[in-house]
Design a protein that fits this description.
This is Tetraspanin family protein. The chain has 213 residues and is mainly α. It is built from 7 helices and no strands. The N and C termini lie far apart (76 Å).
């Protein structure tokens, strides 16, 4: 029963964890699109003296997407191995990510001038992204709530799976079944012959002659 529950928890954790991977892939694709648009704008003569360090928003977007993909890989490895150390690392990373997201969301909601705390973005991608989010605020609100619920559920599943521990008994059970299947072919009650320790008996020539007769 515990083996079935462990397998179900592994599958559910992988499915839930895949949501973060999809979000990370979407961010990487959007970041690559912004980078492509920026390269197209760089062909204009007005961008001859453009500073490449000003692409911080695009680089940050790509980095966050790649980080989510790495966390997804760690979650899949932890779910598949059920290793306590891997699950603990996964829970800590998800918790820190959830805490960071909460702080950023609180700063945006409570601070109306939050853009002033960020470096200047000459590419204009930050302004375009903000307008895109504001025009589709209801959609992004549900997406944000889904991501938070997924992260919390992932931590809960990882805690339960860590409490169950790795499935170390599966190999032992298979060995026992294999041994029991072989027992009918081997006499389990076969006893080793008993040997009597005594003086060796040598046959004399006369005895051998009488036997031959």
């Amino acid at each position: 029963m515990a083996r079935v529950a462990r397998a179900c928890l592994r599958s559910i954790l992988k499915i839930v964890n895949s949501t973060l991977g999809l979000v990370g892939i979407a961010m990487i694709l959007y970041g690559l699109w912004m980078l492509r648009v920026w390269k197209r704008d760089m062909e204009s003569p007005s961008f001859d003296d453009f500073d490449y360090t000003a692409l911080w928003f695009i680089y940050t977007f790509l980095s966050i997407g790649a980080t989510l993909c790495l966390i997804t890989c760690l979650g899949h490895i932890s779910a598949d191995s059920s290793n306590g150390f891997c699950l603990s690392c996964y829970m800590v990373i998800i918790f820190l990510l959830l805490l960071l997201e909460t702080l950023v969301a609180a700063d945006i909601l409570l601070n109306s001038d939050w853009e002033k705390d960020l470096p200047e973005d000459p590419t204009g991608r930050l302004h375009d992204f903000r307008e895109f989010v504001e025009s589709n605020f209801d959609f992004f609100k549900w997406i944000a709530m889904l991501i938070i619920l997924v992260q919390g559920f992932s931590i809960l599943l990882a805690m339960i799976l860590r409490a169950l521990g790795p499935n170390n008994g599966s190999k032992h059970d298979i060995d026992e079944e294999y041994t029991s299947a072989r027992l009918p072919l081997i006499n389990p009650h076969l006893q080793t012959p008993q040997y009597v320790v005594g003086e060796p008996r040598f046959t004399t020539k006369n005895d051998a002659w009488n036997i031959n007769k």
